[in-house]
Amino acid sequence: MDLDTARQELEEFIPHVKNISDGSIKKMAGRDLTRFKEFKKQGIAVKFGRFTQKENKQIQKNVEEFLSLTGIDSAEKLLFTSRYPDDKDTIHHLKTEHHFCEKISEGIPRPWRLIYYRARKMFDPNNYKGRYSKEEKEKLKKYQALHGNDWKKISELMSRSNLSVAMKFSEIKSAINYGPWTKEETQKLMNAVKEVLRRKLKTENADSPLSLEQSDTDLWIDREKLYQALPWTEIETKVGSRYWRQCKQKWNSVLTSKLTRGQQLYRGTNGLRAKINLIKRLYETKAEDASEVNWDELSSAIGDVPRAYVQSKFYRLKVSSVPLWKRKTFSEIIEYLYEKKLPELEEKL
């Protein structure tokens, strides 16, 4: 299959496929496209976001079955083959012979790459070593000074996972403020986000008659979909006093405030329509648990808002509308909102 056809066919299942590199498209065409089509026949949508408990159990089952099939004696050897140089060739041969990619993703409607990363996180013994000691933090700083951001190399030296050492270094590399955000910090964050967003807008709209000065208005706030792809470590550096995760959370808060203030999303008939759409869309997902909901996708149900905004709106709806909601399951809450609250809202509208 040629690249353009593969990208076009994948777009049905992955809306953001145009932002994926050609190399990744080729891999997805081989590993995922047939699976996605099969799931579609079964009426199952491709999922993103947090893995459910059911999916985690399926990954565990797939890994255990593959180990049993091949005789590889541990999940660590299977998923972190480079740690075992003497067995590397044998393991690679067994993976190829027994179709590792297909087996590991069996029964899970997600891109193979995400399933593989999730399996590595679940089965990496280096992920379960508890807090970093003072000695480990000093070692981490020393290794980063020697090897830069080669987290794979550092993770081997530290016997910690790549993600763990990268995130821990981000926390300890500077004095992080954990108190309330000051006006100065918030302004630094706004300036940093605006700078990277304007850079993206300039790249995306190179042929647009819209000038850079025009895009410097609050129009850039409406590009909420960009917030997930922002370079948070770069923004962290520009802010200087906050860890990248804090910056991301604060930005979501700022964004929600500006969207609400600027567009008055929840006033009058617009507010009623938004609640109606949200309840209908949640009901259509047939989700048994909140972790099964793609909140990013649902954000389109009520306007160009962050997922955190959708989740907070749902929280307010259930608290104000569903009696004894704490005793109900997620699906029972949705059912109540659909059967009792929805008709009331439609009548008001």
Automatic annotation (TrEMBL):
Q: Which Gene3D superfamilies match?
A: Homeodomain-like (1.10.10.60)
Q: Which GO terms describe its cellular component?
A: nucleolus
Could you provide one GO biological process annotation from this protein's UniProt record? termination of RNA polymerase I transcription
Q: Which residues form a coiled coil?
A: none
What PROSITE patterns does the database record attribute to this sequence? Answer: MYB_LIKE
Q: Listed GO molecular functions?
A: chromatin binding
Q: Which residues form the Myb-like domain?
A: 124-172, 173-255
Which regions span the lipid bilayer?
A: none
Q: What is this protein called?
A: TTF1 factor
What is the originating organism of this protein? Cinclus mexicanus
